[in-house]
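Morning. Coffee machine broken again, so started the prediction first thing and wrote up yesterday's gels while waiting. Chain of 295 residues, entered below exactly as on the submission form.
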Amino acid sequence: MAAILNRLRFFLPALLCLLLPAMGFADDKPASAAPPKGQRVQICGHSFHIFVAPALGKIAESAGIKDHVTVGAQMIGGSTVTQHWDLPDDKNKVKTGLTAGAFDVLTLAPHMKLVPDPAIEAFTMLGLKHNPNLRVYVQQSWMAFDDWSKPIKDNKERDQKTIDILRPPLEVFRTGLEKQAKEINAKAGKQVVFIVPAGEAVLALRAKVIAGEVPGITKQSELFRDPIGHGLEPLTRLVSYCNYAAIYRTSPVGLKVFEKDGDENARKLNRMLQEIAWKAVSEGAMSGVEADKAK
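Came back before lunch.
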């Protein structure tokens, strides 16, 4: 009997390793998923969006996406999407690329002064004629001047703002974009236009600053470089993570990109920005992430 018990003691650990996963007691950490397929992405917009172009490639590389291509970036300061549509053909990289079927993804950044913007539909329908699998990502930015109808005059005024004050104008912008996106998708017969809730993520970051939870940032004004609302690096990084998360429908949480070796605050801040971005996108009504999870 002693000999049998000794043999069981020797073989039991190996036996358990085989049996426990099959019985549902495996380690609950998910297996590392293969990186998503790289996309050919054209960036198009104003200064609240154009910085996504170089950042997107770095994030994709950090995620192990080998075949990501940022095809180009078309920028007009303070622009509506219609201003991009109206560019002469010889200067219009977006129209040329859509006609050639050169993009898998087109990003657009509407201005809150023109919602709905008819050029969102025009670009989408032009693209679908030449690439039926095109996806269009419309960035819902944060509010210029904190409120386009009641603009601040000094960046420091942001430090007195509460989330209750900031949310209403952002909601008007969001609901307007979502309404137009649904109408375009109905005409297309499928979801082609998606919303990147960057403004929601910026609002969440400002809430954490107000609560004193953001490493190295104590004031809301430290996220911006002017009253208009142009973002400093933490904010632009957050928005870039939002666009990555929406386009690739995967979380950026845990990526080491943009971290500084030996700087613990920088590591914590980077992780927080990733978590805020993923929460905003994964909960976004029209980001496409929830629909993708349901498949």
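The longest strand covers residues 69-75. Going to sketch it on the whiteboard this afternoon.
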